[in-house]
Amino acid sequence: MHTATTSPTGPTLLIVEDDILPAMNLMDELRDAGFHVLELTERVEEAKAAALACKPALALVNIELHGHDDGIGLARDLKLMGIPVLFISGQEEKVRAAKAVAIGSLAKPYHPDDMIEAVRYLLRHIARDESLPRPAGLEVFDDLQTDAVR
Fold first, then answer.
1. For the chain, N or C: smaller number of CB within 10 Å?
2. Which of 99, 86, 100 is nearest to 11 (CA)?
3. Contact (Cβ atoms closer than 8 angstroms) between residue 56 and residue 29
4. pLDDT means per 10 residues in the chain (150 residues)?
5. 24: burial class by Cβ within 10 Å (0-12, 13-18, 19+)?
6. Which architecture characterizes domain 12-149 according to CATH?
């Protein structure tokens, strides 16, 4: 687990990913882009505790986590907490089957710049600001969860 060391400057994000090196790289890239990223988590219980402690504007969740942890179940719990979820997974069939609990998905492998664009787009989309074009590779689901983000 790695902790962000800079002070928050933009919207808060939660990354739930068990592949720690790409997750650390993603965290650094998002932080450099002006986002505040909570501690990286790789377990469902850690992610729920972090979400309760500091309600993020968006959670980036991998579907398949180590052990018996389930990103889809976590996304369902986060949605109930009012936190929108972006699936970051190569499991496209599972993503589509679970789209009711997420705002969208960006398939692996992705470039960090693509993730930054996707996060910026989704945060504006949640606020019903459609001024940015939808990034290539980002699948957006219809459930905006707008009441949850305010």
1. C
2. 86
3. no
4. 51 93 93 94 92 96 83 95 93 87 93 94 93 92 50
5. middle
6. 3-Layer(aba) Sandwich (3.40)
